[in-house]
Amino acid sequence: MRVTQTDIELLKKKVLQLEKSVYLLTQQVYSTNEYSSFNTSLQELKFFDFNTEVLRYVIQWIDKFTTSDLQPPLGIYINGPFGVGKTFIMEALVNQLSSLNIPSALVSVPDMYRKLKDTFNKGTTEAFVTYLKTVPVLILDDIGAENVSPWGRDEILGPLLSFRARRNFPTLFTSNYNLEELYDHFLGTEPTNKSHMQARKIMELITPYVTCFELSGPNMRIEVL
């Protein structure tokens, strides 16, 4: 399925409608990294000691996403140690998309699960999940930092990734884990045949749909302190 400019415009309208119904919730789960800002631009990131290959690719990715009426680009998977700037880069990407009037969401995965549990009885859970499924660009920040549960892995994350993959909606990720380590994470603390099967399903919805980068360097958060 190819996504056209018309599709993107229709998605924008749907996303705006959904944002109205889950505004407070989404404001709480958007990344608020205390050492970075959504005002940071990708151009400004060139002054930091980042992997230039990653920055170059992210800039090209935005250009391809905003100009191509054909197949949208694959998502991006950036892994690396704590504090090296993974979320920093994604926040700059969100800011750039916002300047182009393209809806996007950067969601902390652990926070996402906590907020979904909090909203079970408030009538906003379905609207929020629909928002995540249909927003044109979704960034799942810090995947792998959440506690693994069959509910989160099989009932929330699996259907979310499946929906987006079937429609070629790009999903981007940051993680402390590479893909092999992420698979081990999804097995849980007591792996079973079922958890192996479910972990494979999740990885089949991530691995073919992303271009991977490993980010290394000093812990920027410690340096700031």
From TrEMBL:
Pfam families: IstB_IS21 (PF01695)
UniProt GO MF annotations: ATP binding
One GO BP annotation of this record: DNA replication
Domain IstB-like ATP-binding: 76-186
Record keywords, A-Z: Cell cycle, Cell division
Protein name (database record): Cell division protein ZapE
Protein species of origin: Brevibacillus fluminis
